[in-house]
Amino acid sequence: MTKEVWRFIDSGNGSPAFNMALDEALLDWHSEGKIPPVIRFYGWNPATLSVGYFQKVEKEIDMEAVRHHRLGFVRRPTGGRGVLHEHELTYSVIVSEEHPDMPKTVTEAYRVISEGILKGFHYLGLDAYFAVPKTAAERDSLKNPRSAVCFDAPSWYELVVEGRKVAGSAQTRQKGVILQHGSILLDLDEDKLFSLFKYPNDRVKERMQKAFKSKAVAINEISSRTISLTEAKDAFRKGFADGLNIDLEPYELSAGELEYVTKIAKDRYESNEWNFKR
Questions:
Q1: Is 1 a catalytic residue?
Q2: What percent of the chain has pLDDT over 90?
Q3: Which of 39, 146, 147, 233 is the most buried (most CB within 10 A)?
Q4: Where is the active site (predicted)?
């Protein structure tokens, strides 16, 4: 039986605004029937702090520290919390809500899409698995996360290795299309990450950073060998193809498509109104 063909885009390192604009553009084009579903890989130049759509920047983010580290800054169209995009592979998946293999609920669709990431970890020789919050307290903490840091909070169908979170993802549904994007950490500078958020006092910051070590981990901290970005891309590309039972066809954006993306980047994701609106 022939497999469904999705597009595969490796857009390389982009600016924070371009990265979010391209995800939005792909969602638009897929909603209009112009393109099939898409898997996209990308990186960030400069390294960037992205915040979730609902986060309050003034209350939660230390913008002075963001500037000190010369990081980019952008608000995502998806929910979730702050992510430092530095030593990682970032992915996005764009697929119709009506796709026959996509469950109707956010949680279940997240599990189906994340099957591709799970397989990618297996290709890298890591024993990753889905962890589901079991207790009422864990489930409640999904609704009211205490931390502004993405990898610090539990979520449904968490991807974990040795009990620690190895990938963080967020999802939005607009125009009948699911956009899920996320970070697969290769390495992590914890001190830099924790310097970017506001805390009631230093004691709370120390306690949260200490607790964080037991909750999240980067691939190269637990792998028996150093995994390069190229190797990670190969593994996760194969993982998505296997996990979603699809064939991936490489795609390059046309000049007209790039122009459309650049306009969204300028109008929305480069604007202070969007990035600092809450």
A1: no
A2: 78
A3: 39
A4: 150
